[in-house]
Amino acid sequence: MFMDGYCILDSAASSSDAYWLLLRVLALVPLWHYLLLAAFILFSFIYNFLELHFLQDLFSGFPGSPVALSYNASSQIYHGVVSNCKILHGKYFATPWLCSPHLQTLFVNYFGRPPSLKYTRQLFRTADGGTIALDWLSSSDVSGGAPHGDDVASEDESIPIVVIIPGLTSDSSSQYVKHLAYYTAKRGWKVVVFGGVSITSNFSYNAGWTEDVRTVINYLHKEKSKAPLFVVGTSIGANILVKYLGEDGENIPVAGAVAVCSPWDLLVRDRYIRRGRMQKLYDKALAFGLQDYAKLHQSHFSRNANWEGILKSFSVRDFDDHATRVVGKYESVDTYYRRCSSSIYVKSVAVPLLCISALDDPICTTEAIPWDECKANKNIVVATVKHGGHLAFFEGITASQLWWVRAVNEFLGVLHSGNYMHKQKKNSKSSIALDSSIDHGPYVNVTEDGTVAALNNGPTTDM
Ligand SMILES: *[C@@H]1O[C@H](CO)[C@@H](O)[C@H](O)[C@H]1NC(C)=O
Ligand SMILES: *[C@@H]1O[C@H](CO)[C@@H](O)[C@H](O)[C@H]1NC(C)=O
Ligand SMILES: *[C@@H]1O[C@H](CO)[C@@H](O)[C@H](O)[C@H]1NC(C)=O
């Protein structure tokens, strides 16, 4: 047959004859071969789209991802604390059926397998009339003992307290927060989940609004001055945490902190999340989450922001443009992102700080990690793992545990048992070391209490 075809072509036939012949040849291939090919193409597409790494893992014998640590060579926090953390010197083995950053991230948000627990809610009133929900959990809540009441007088005053600052649209009921709260309380410590926004304050939902955190931490320190205070921030909560640590420097009652999956630089995060195909889906999902959140506080947003715009927001940037930027009085969304990014505060952090991120985090890109600034600060150790997704890091065949939760607890445990916990030094009052030119941008006004407002009459020198 091939020879036939060859002969026809050879005898100067028209090109349509050639295609006709080709079609006849292709028609001879059995249908199921085509189906097989289609299935293979579909599989490769999905495999790449979801960034699965199952086959790579399988062919290399499920080697796990080693933890990469980045720190200043003379960092005491590394040599005195992190070097004694086994988990941070081991490997992270992803759950085999969650071998993709997207599957990990979806699973933690929609299933998460959280331990069951019940918080005790305390409503904290701020001086400006805002209300912040503080959800408490202690070891008696998770070990089946008597429920934890308000009577704390009989308890050991020196039990450490871990303050959790959750991320965007998350709160104490979020799956990953429950994992962290449960396992921290299980080891005998007290946990308090920061309810996030102060519902009646005008500054709700601002990635750089540190005042509420500062107020609550000062209050906790005043109430329980013998208890070491640790703070764990996740995602946007990690951004708020690092910014707060940098703003207050030495004068801070925090003994140690962990920032998990921080966005670091909101401008870079914004550009990243609007670039990739998959990232655009996350962007939409996050925008819808923010809209739901806004609807809960409709009276506040319709009074202080552009409510029509909020309802039409299909991305986080749209939402920030119509809500966050307006409420915070920033000139532009980028001004807001630039001012509220924690990366510019890294150098002033004075407490032991562990930062954990997955290199495949689909939301908070590693492009934004300020490696050099972190390395220049001896108090900071950055731990990165190749896989894990955003706030997920599921491990075990049943995906019942989060690796980062174990890593955080081990780090805080080692820090607590040694001599490296930070002690508040009152003398260096509020040392915000914003001395690079970009922070002296022409159109923002930072007042003493940390409020940031845009100036529209400032000189417009180049940035
Ligand atoms: C919030 O904003 C409104 C209007 O801009 C103002 O009247 C109110 O005093 C503000 N509340 C707080 C707590 O700042
Ligand atoms: C480590 O810290 C020292 C002193 O704080 C500093 O001089 C040095 O540049 C830092 N190293 C790096 C790699 O940033
Ligand atoms: C910045 O804000 C403070 C307090 O609102 C105000 O007194 C000061 O004049 C402002 N600075 C400029 C440059 O507008």
Automatic annotation (TrEMBL):
<dbReference type="GO" id="GO:0034338">
    <property type="term" value="F:short-chain carboxylesterase activity"/>
</dbReference>
<keyword id="KW-0472">Membrane</keyword>
<dbReference type="InterPro" id="IPR012020">
    <property type="entry name" value="ABHD4"/>
</dbReference>
<feature type="domain" description="AB hydrolase-1">
    <location>
        <begin position="160"/>
        <end position="396"/>
    </location>
</feature>
<dbReference type="GO" id="GO:0047372">
    <property type="term" value="F:monoacylglycerol lipase activity"/>
</dbReference>
<feature type="active site" description="Charge relay system">
    <location>
        <position position="361"/>
    </location>
</feature>
<feature type="active site" description="Charge relay system">
    <location>
        <position position="390"/>
    </location>
</feature>
<dbReference type="Pfam" id="PF00561">
    <property type="entry name" value="Abhydrolase_1"/>
</dbReference>
<protein>
    <recommendedName>
        <fullName>AB hydrolase-1 domain-containing protein</fullName>
    </recommendedName>
</protein>
<comment type="similarity">
    <text>Belongs to the AB hydrolase superfamily. AB hydrolase 4 family.</text>
</comment>
<keyword id="KW-1133">Transmembrane helix</keyword>
<dbReference type="InterPro" id="IPR000073">
    <property type="entry name" value="AB_hydrolase_1"/>
</dbReference>
<feature type="active site" description="Charge relay system">
    <location>
        <position position="235"/>
    </location>
</feature>
<dbReference type="InterPro" id="IPR050960">
    <property type="entry name" value="AB_hydrolase_4_sf"/>
</dbReference>
<dbReference type="InterPro" id="IPR029058">
    <property type="entry name" value="AB_hydrolase_fold"/>
</dbReference>
<feature type="transmembrane region" description="Helical">
    <location>
        <begin position="31"/>
        <end position="50"/>
    </location>
</feature>
<keyword id="KW-0812">Transmembrane</keyword>
